[in-house]
Specification:
Layout: H1 2-60, H2 63-82, H3 86-99, H4 111-122
Helix pairs in contact: 2-3, 3-4
Length: 131
């Protein structure tokens, strides 16, 4: 009988120790998995942002984008030529400056449009040969 009690106490003690070690190991595994998930999500967000930036650079180098920009610039030039009010011309020039602030004018092959963009950037509102 005494042997059974000692054996039972010894087995209970071993189970308690195993349970303690198991919980500690489980907590450590959970923390490692949690860290990996957080780092993976941060890496995923960073990759998506990098990918969007790369796609934007590729798009801005495309012929479609540049043709669209030149069409818009030609539209603003036409509006500037047909407008007689200097306040409206200044507003159009400000709009052109803000819309095309980061556009590389060396991509413009049309000399008239290139001069129009330069004139707007320099504050010259008399466009169309009426200088």
């Amino acid at each position: 009988m005494r042997l059974d009690k000692e054996f039972k106490q010894e087995v209970n003690q071993e189970f308690k120790e195993f349970d303690y070690v198991g919980r500690r190991t489980g907590i450590r595994i959970f923390i490692v998995v949690l860290i990996l998930v957080v780092l993976g999500s941060i890496g995923g967000v960073t990759y998506k942002k990098w990918k969007v930036d790369q796609d934007r650079k590729i798009f801005k180098q495309s012929a479609t984008y540049n043709e669209g920009v030149l069409d818009d610039l030609a539209k603003y030039k036409y509006e500037m030529i047909t407008e007689s009010d200097t306040v409206a011309q200044a507003a159009i020039a400000d709009l052109v400056n803000s819309r095309f602030a980061n556009y590389d004018e060396s991509k413009i092959e049309n000399k008239d449009l290139k001069m129009f963009l330069r004139d707007c950037r320099n504050g010259d509102y008399s466009v169309g040969g009426e200088k």
